[in-house]
Amino acid sequence: MQAFDDALDPDGPEPDPTEGRRLTMVKHADGSVTGRFDLDAVGGEKVQAAVESIVQADRPKGDDRTRTQQNADALVQLCDNQLASGQLPILRTVKPHVVVGIDLDDLVDPATGAGAGEMGFGATISAARARYLACDGSISRIVMGPGGVPLDLGRDHRVVTPGLRKAVERRDEACVFAGCGAPSWWCDVHHLIHWLHGGETSLQNSANS
Fold first, then answer.
1. Is residue 161 within 8 Å of residue 153, measured between CB atoms?
2. What's the pTM?
């Protein structure tokens, strides 16, 4: 039977072209990112078609960008479009979004304020750049108490609210389980004392884990 199968298909099963797909992103000390990807013919064609559509739709008069700069801008624009559409997978009740943490004084100060804002994946940006991002974003205020501990946000729901999640992530920064230290974007926010056992949905009773 095996010889019969081999005779019908001497080349063997068709290899899965997606097995060779790779995407590597490296973040540098200044927050910039260098990347490399390897794609099969079909996957590469899809990426080229999407990038080229943005490049050809954005050709302003006097554009002196190089082709590689145009491609990079197109890739960022594709991500902007997807984030703005709200169609990306929702993780832990929160839609994917760009997070910037900045002190109120730096936000309202007209000075550039280099290194004043911290982004969700660890990059540091200027206050001016943070204000630029805030123009198209929503601003959530987290009032910090003594010792840098966020105050209770005053919400009392069984499910952790997006605002409370931000406060917990700001405070804990990573998983608080002993010996773990996983980054906050891998974690859920859990009640320390379970809701069913009388635990409140508050900052004091919540933790990254």
1. yes
2. 0.61
Q: What share of the chain is helix, strand, coil (3-state, %, to 5)?
A: 40, 15, 45
> Which helix or strand (DSSP H or E) is residue 27 part of?
strand 22-27
Render pLDDT for 84-131 as a digit per residue (tens, 0 to 9): 888 888 877 777 888 888 888 888 788 877 888 888 888 888 888 888
In degrees, rounded to 5, the angle at the alpha carbon of residue 182 between the alpha carbons of residues 176 and 186 is 105
Residue 17 contacts residue 42 (beta carbons within 8 Å): yes
Q: Which residue shows structure tokens 């405070």?
A: 171
Angle at 168 between CA 30 and CA 111, to 5 degrees: 40
Residue 84 is classified by DSSP as H
Write out the two tokens for 76.
């960022």
Q: Terminus-to-terminus CA distance in the chain, angstroms?
A: 53
Burial, 136: exposed, middle or buried (Cβ in 10 Å; 0-12, 13-18, 19+)?
exposed
Pairing of strands 124-125, 189-191: unpaired
Secondary structure (3-state) at 206: strand
Q: How far is it, in rounded angstroms, from Cα 95 to Cα 118?
A: 19
In the three-class reduction of DSSP (H, G, I as helix; E, B as strand; rest coil), residue 189 is classed as: strand
CB crowding 31-47: b at 16 or more within 10 Å, else e: eeeeeeeebeeeeeeee
